[in-house]
Design a protein that fits this description.
The protein has 12 helices and 9 strands. It is α/β, with parallel strands linked by helices and 316 residues long. Strand 8 and strand 9 form a beta hairpin. Helix 5 packs parallel to helix 8 and helix 10 crosses helix 11.
Amino acid sequence: MAVLPIPKKGRLKFFLHPRHWHRWLGVGAMRAISLLPLPMLAWCGDSLGVVLYYIHPGRREIATINICKCFPELTPEAQKQMVKSNFRVFGQALLDMGIAWWASPQRLGRLVKISGREHYDRAIADGKNVILLVPHFVGLEIGVVRLSQERPMCAVFRHVDNEVLRLFMEKGRTRFGLTLIEYNKPLITLVKKVREGLPLYYLPDQDARKRSPAFAPFFGIPTATFTALGRLAKITAAVVIPCFCRQLPGGKGYEIAFEPPLAGFPTNDPVKDAERMNREIERAVRETPEQYFWLHKRFKTRPVGETSFYPKEKRR
C-alpha cells in the first residue's frame, strides 16, 4: 500500500486533526520513556517483549518458522526459547528508539561503545569511499544515529504509515547530519552520494521479492537476495566494511563493531557477491542469533515451484 505524503500546506491543521491525537500520545510516551535510565528501559523492554510474544501470534509464528529453518540442530525447546529471547530484545529496542531520536550527544556517546573503529577510520583517512554492511540487528537504529554524530552519512529508508511518527523519526535520524534516501530511488542516487564521500549505512538483508533477486544461500536456504551491494561497491570503488550493532546485556548499552573491509570484494559476478554477503551476515548472526530481526519474512520469496514457508500464502 502506498504511503500518503504529508501535505506541504496546512501542515499544522493536518497534524492537529483528531485522527492523529492517539499518535501524538504515543510519541509523547516514547519521549518520556527515553528519559529513563537504560537499565530500567531494559527491564521494561524485556517485559514488553514478553507481552508482544503472547499478543502477536502472527509475528511469533514467523519468528518460529525462521528460527526452526535456520537452526534445525536445536531442540524444539531451545528454538522456542530463542524466539522468546528475540521478542525480549526487540521490546527493548522499541523503547530505546527514543534515545536514538532525542538523547543528547553526550548520552549517546556513553551508551554506545565502538569496537574495531580503526578499520572504519583508516578507510576514511585514506580517502576511500565506504559502504557499511549493516545486517538487521536490533541495535541498527541507535547505531546509525550514533555514527552520524562523527561524520555525515547516508542511509536508505522506507516511510512508515504513521505520519506523526514519520515526522519525529526522520527528524531524529537526521539531527546530526544523516542523509536519508528513499528505498525506491534509482541506484544512481546512492552512487552519487557514495562518490561524494558519504559513507553509506546499508541494510540489504531483507526479502528481495521480484526486484531481480539472486537465490543465494542463507543458513543453507536459497534466499531471495539483493545483488546491489557488489554493484554499488564496484561502481563507486568503495570498500565494504561489516558493521554490527548489538545490544549489551543488562541495560549496559549498545556496541557498534566494525570488522576489516571485505577482501576480494566485489568480484565481477553479482551472484557470487550476494553469496559472500550472506555468508558474512550468517556468521555474524550465529554469534548473537537472538538479536537478529527474525520477525521479518526473510524467506518469503521462494524459487519457482517451491511451497511458501509461511501460512496463508499461495504457491508461486
